[in-house]
Amino acid sequence: MKDMFSIGELASYQNISKQTLIYYDKIGLFKPAYVDPDNKYRYYTVKQVDYLDTILIMKEMGFTLNEIQEHMKNYTIDTSLITMRKQLTVIDQQITHLELVRNRLTHRCRQLEHVKAFHEQNQEVTIKEVRPKYLLWADIERPQTFREISIATKKCFSQALKDELPIYFQTGVIVPYKHILEERYTEASVAFIPIEKTKKAKNICLLPKGKAASIYHCGDYLSVDRSYKKLLEYCKDQQLTIVSDSYEFCINDYITSGDENEYITEIFFYVQ
Q: What is the distance between the alpha carbons of residues 225 and 62, in angstroms, rounded to a whole number?
């Protein structure tokens, strides 16, 4: 039609699909100026191109289609300024969140690279200085099998996502020293996720600075006994006194590998 654009032409000019324009029509966001009653073809005026520009620009700014539709019912320079200022706040929050996620992801990559190199050198028990870190924790209910450990871990993740807590992408458990001596190596009492210091949760404890005997267990968790035996034997040979429960940090787990043989778990006791 003269002085009007077909849906195909408008879609081509705006570099969007015809299905997008059909959907915008369906939800009432951007309706054609004229629909041919015979073939149902949609046509748009030149003025509508500017209106569509506004929709697409606001979408690029991060507004939802519902927000755009509500805003454009009756928008002025004043309402636009208010709306865009609010969106700036939203974007700033998203940037902060993405920076947090990026830092966590960078930490996870460095961790995997370090442990992979460490394992390839075939080193076993070492003495290390534990740096203080905070842990978001949850008790593991009896009988403290893998099922209960998984539930406790999921509780931590669920709480962290719900309350937007600054966690690291890592999990771990605490196994009572008594359990280790009784060869109940997989019966952990507490599940945890490393976290930055925050006042947004009460179930956070501080892993203190201290000297520790550490080993990296490689393989599925059911075989963890072999690493515990090495660690206990080392402490005995070196006349080290174990003064804590066992801390296990999952370095490579289901998050980063589908092969349990590639799983890597750091295990350590505080020692004197």
A: 51
